[in-house]
Design a protein that fits this description.
Radius of gyration: 25 Å
Helix content: 25-40%
Strand order of the largest sheet: 3-2-4-1-10-9-11-15
Number of helices: 18
Mean pLDDT: 92
Low-confidence stretches: none
Largest sheet: 8 strands, antiparallel
Strand content: 15-25%
Shape: globular
Distance between the termini: 10 Å
Structural class: alpha/beta
């Protein structure tokens, strides 16, 4: 959450920072600001609202310079307003700071500084960093930053400028992502790759408590003892096209449409020789008596689907835990436990915490992430990468689908090693996996009906998603997508549980989305559909089977697919339904209210 960018180089920093903030706006859009060193002072502009508001402010003032920092905010401490916006300055305006994270002991620091006569102007935890850094500064910015880092409790990624050292941009991080980009025209800090992708593909992923000193002509790294660190940059494989809308009205629709390609590339990267295959093949699954999948949000729901696939194929017990709960519940984990952590960004705070807790208790960790060099990728015992590329829309679509297919392949390979499926079954399942991209394209080629049905559903007050077995598992993600971008209340229920309470909520006109892709349970779920229709509900029926349509039942027909892998097709229909409901309501689909893309704070 929150987006940071900084630049020092030969060019004017302002347009570079503004463009970078636009590419980071998915991380937070409550307010935005910029500080640039010019004429022995900081030129600062900060505005509540979107980047466009900041641009309007900059049009009124003359701010330019070759060194600057910018920030787009997802509010934690202090309401969204101009004063609480970043960058924050010390009382003497000698230090400017942008911050992503949460400072847990900010009140104690603030009280101490106020007792020394230092006056604060904002309600944020972040201002204490600028004030404390300025308080410590005695002519050596690195010394001051080290003292600040030692004093802070919590998480942070910081970009820091000092008037007395105007050719320097300094950065440090702990438990929040920060990258350093290098180029011939200058050097960058950023929260995420898309912010600097137009300028460079050469990046360093910073480690915790590592200090970066950026100048126009180079970057140096140091540890907390001020000892130099030798770093080798990594090359980003993402393309600029992946971070652009490409003619689509929203990133979310573009990313939905990219799923056949993402599936194809993730499958190829995992089945062919390479890092993914090596990671999977080198893990001895027979060592473990339990598997735990832990993640947050959509990634956790990918894990719920994965549980059904793993248990069916591997015959091993699998638990799925929200990472935010796992890390605090005194989990039953030991050296016989395999913990699979799933995260698009690889920087999700709760998931990192869960992984570290698991490792501390002796578990082996296997990560599924989308970002090479991310914290989870670096710290996990084994790592496999999805091939989703940059995902800009806050609501995950293509990254979720890539996580699903990687979990499928992981389950198949583990089952093969355990001897719970033979070579013939393995070949059959892999063939089904290889056919998923083509079948996903089929679903996307027939979106008109979903779009039309969604247009008639915008006035729904509550929507219920039902399914059985793996169809129930994917209904969680369908429900989440609808609520997070359309703001319609929705819930996912096991079809067989309707009559144990939930059916009391069914009345005339209520919408029920039923998923039916398990042949042996088709009759069961259709019975549930008839039960809700008899009580006045209308049903959107997502199924691989033909079904007679009525005025109360509308069918979205999916291609035939093995039921274990059917979530890869049904989720596309559910994503499209949610997208078109939100689009017909005229909502800001890529930036839903109160949400941000990468949740790097608790």
């Amino acid at each position: 959450m929150c987006g940071i960018i900084g630049y020092t180089g030969k060019r004017d920093a302002v347009p570079i920072i503004i463009e970078g903030l636009k590419r980071l706006e998915y991380r937070g859009y409550d307010s935005a600001g910029i500080a640039v060193y010019a004429d022995e002072a900081f030129g600062v502009a900060k505005r509540k609202g979107r980047i466009a508001e900041l641009e309007a402010e900059l049009a009124k003032v003359n701010i330019s310079g070759n060194v600057g920092i910018g920030h787009t905010r997802w509010a934690t401490h202090g309401e969204p307003n101009d004063v609480n916006s970043h960058p924050h300055l010390g009382e003497k305006s000698r230090i400017a700071v942008v911050h992503n994270g949460i400072i847990e002991n900010y009140k104690q620091i603030k009280d101490t500084l106020e007792q020394k006569g230092i006056k604060f102007v904002s309600q944020t935890d972040s201002e204490v960093i600028a004030q404390l850094c300025e308080h410590y500064y005695d002519g050596d910015l690195m010394d001051a930053v080290i003292k600040v880092a030692n004093a802070l409790e919590g998480s942070y990624a910081l970009g820091i400028m000092c008037l007395d050292e105007p050719d320097i941009l300094m950065a440090i991080k702990k438990d929040n992502p920060l990258i350093v980009g290098i180029s011939d025209d200058g050097n960058f800090i950023a929260s995420d790759v898309p912010a600097i992708l137009p300028h460079t593909k050469q990046v360093h992923y910073m480690n915790d408590k590592e200090i970066a000193i950026l100048r126009a002509d180079g970057v140096d790294f140091f540890n907390m003892q001020k000892e130099p660190i030798v770093r080798k940059p990594e090359t980003i494989t993402w393309t600029m096209e992946g971070a652009e809308k490409g003619g689509y009205p929203h990133f979310m629709l573009k990313e939905i449409m990219e799923q056949p390609r993402v599936l194809k590339e993730t499958i190829a990267n995992t089945l062919m020789d390479g890092a993914n295959k090596t990671a999977i093949d080198s893990l001895d699954i027979s060592h473990f008596n339990k598997v735990i999948i832990t993640a947050c949000g959509s990634a956790c729901y990918a894990g719920v689907v994965g549980k059904y696939v793993f248990e069916r194929l591997c015959r091993i017990s699998v638990e799925v835990e929200f990472a935010s709960e796992f890390r605090y519940k005194d989990p039953i984990v030991d050296d016989k436990t395999l913990v699979i952590v799933v995260s698009q960004s690889g920087e999700t705070a709760d998931t990192i915490g869960a992984m570290r807790e698991a490792k501390k208790r002796g578990a082996t960790t296997f990560a599924i992430v989308n970002v090479i060099g991310s914290a989870i990728a670096r710290e996990a015992d084994y790592t496999a990468y999805t091939a989703a590329g940059p995902e800009i829309a806050v609501a995950s679509t293509k990254a979720f689908s890539a996580q699903l297919v990687l979990l499928y392949i992981l389950a198949i390979r583990f089952a093969q090693k355990l001897g719970t499926i033979d070579d013939a079954k393995t070949a059959e399942l892999i063939a089904e996996i290889n056919n998923l991209p083509e079948k996903a394209t089929e679903v996307l080629d027939h979106t008109d009906y979903i779009q039309k049905y969604a247009a008639g559903s915008i006035n729904s007050k509550s929507v219920f998603f039902i399914g059985r077995n793996i169809d129930y598992a994917i209904s969680f993600e369908g429900s989440l997508k609808l609520k997070e971008i359309s703001y319609i209340h929705s819930e996912a229920y096991a079809g067989g549980e309707l009559k144990h309470g939930t059916i009391a909520l069914i009345e005339e006109g209520v919408l029920v989305v039923a998923i039916a892709c398990c042949p042996n349970l088709y009759g069961k779920i259709f019975s549930n559909v008839e039960q809700v229709i008899s009580r006045g509900a209308r049903v959107l029926f997502v199924s691989t089977e033909d079904t007679k349509q009525t005025d109360k039942l509308s069918l979205v027909k999916l291609p035939q697919v093995h039921e274990l892998f059917s979530p890869s097709l049904s989720v596309i229909a559910l994503q499209l339904f949610s997208y078109y409901v939100a689009a017909n309501k005229g909502l800001d689909i890529d930036k839903p209210r109160n949400l941000a893309k990468s949740v790097t704070v608790e």
